[in-house]
């Protein structure tokens, strides 16, 4: 199972929007609506930001949103804030109770 | 408050073994799927293994099949990962995480396993 493909980096100024893509195949991203996104600050555990493509857990700001088209999922952070600077990972169910993560994207707030 | 606390990591020589533990509290452990996820130094996240609520079903990433064993003790609210035949590429921070809605909503602080190359 190969890792899902994410851009290594993305950036934006405070208040702007940034969108991160996550490309897989029809066997994972394209085959199931079970894509999730995690935020990870240096030295910290990952935090769930989006599950089931576009659902936000309680406590996650509404400026985080997710979507999917075909084999590519996306995470958009609107109204970028300094605390959004972190690594972001997508994850998808890949069938047979297996999961695959994305390669990770470092988001920089300029 | 949900809490997951890992223990048992450390320095292990190639070919050696280790048992990682994860103590859970703040939720009904026996009704939750649980998983282990690892992160090699400076690298991305990798799903390692998952176990169902009563421990009867276990799933592994191909690279650890036959070497790692996930288990749980619901009476002790604890999750385990027995890691055998360790390789340099197994060196990582190992996180235990609670599975929910085809994702992981709570994570431990992580436990470092070092395997010198």
Short description:
By secondary structure, chain A is mainly β.
Properties at a glance:
heterodimer, A: 110 residues, mainly beta, 9 strands, 0% helix, globular, B: 117 residues, four-stranded antiparallel sheet, 11 strands
Q: Can you walk me through this structure?
A:
The complex is a heterodimer of chains A (110) and B (117). Chain A is an all-beta fold and 110 residues long. Chain A has strands at 9-12, 18-23, 35-40, 47-50, 64-69, 72-77, 86-93, 99-101, 105-109. In chain A, the strands form two sheets. In chain A, strands 1, 3, 4, 7, 8 and 9 form a six-stranded mixed beta sheet that branches. A three-stranded antiparallel beta sheet of chain A has the order 2-6-5, with no helix packed on it. The mean pLDDT of chain A is 97. By secondary structure, chain B is mainly β. Helix content of chain B is 0%, strand content 52%. Chain B is built from no helices and eleven strands. In chain B, strands 2, 4, 5, 6, 9, 10 and 11 form a seven-stranded mixed beta sheet that branches. Chain B is globular and about 40 Å long. The relative contact order of chain B is 0.31. Classes of the chains: A mainly beta (110), B mainly beta (117). Chains A and B meet through strand 3, strand 7 and strand 8 of A and strand 5 and strand 10 of B.
């Amino acid at each position: 199972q190969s890792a899902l493909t994410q851009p290594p980096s993305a950036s934006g100024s405070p208040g702007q929007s940034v969108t991160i893509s996550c490309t897989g195949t029809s066997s994972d991203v394209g085959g199931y609506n079970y894509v999730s996104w995690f935020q990870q600050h240096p030295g910290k555990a990952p935090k769930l930001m989006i599950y089931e493509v576009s659902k936000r857990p309680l406590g996650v700001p509404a400026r985080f949103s997710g979507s999917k088209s075909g084999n590519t999922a996306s995470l958009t952070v609107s109204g970028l804030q300094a605390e959004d600077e972190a690594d972001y990972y997508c994850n998808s169910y890949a069938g047979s109770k297996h999961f695959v993560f994305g390669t990770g994207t470092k988001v920089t707030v300029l | 408050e949900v809490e997951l606390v890992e223990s048992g990591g450390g320095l292990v020589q190639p070919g050696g073994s280790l048992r990682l533990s994860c103590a859970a509290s703040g939720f009904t452990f026996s009704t939750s799927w649980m998983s282990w996820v690892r992160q090699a130094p400076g690298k991305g996240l990798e799903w390692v293994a998952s176990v169902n609520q009563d421990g009867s079903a276990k799933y592994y990433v191909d690279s650890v099949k036959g070497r790692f064993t996930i288990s749980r003790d619901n009476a002790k609210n604890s999750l385990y990962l027995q890691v055998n035949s360790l390789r340099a590429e197994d060196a990582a921070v190992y996180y235990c995480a609670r599975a929910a809605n085809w994702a992981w909503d709570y994570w431990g602080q992580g436990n470092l396993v070092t395997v010198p190359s």
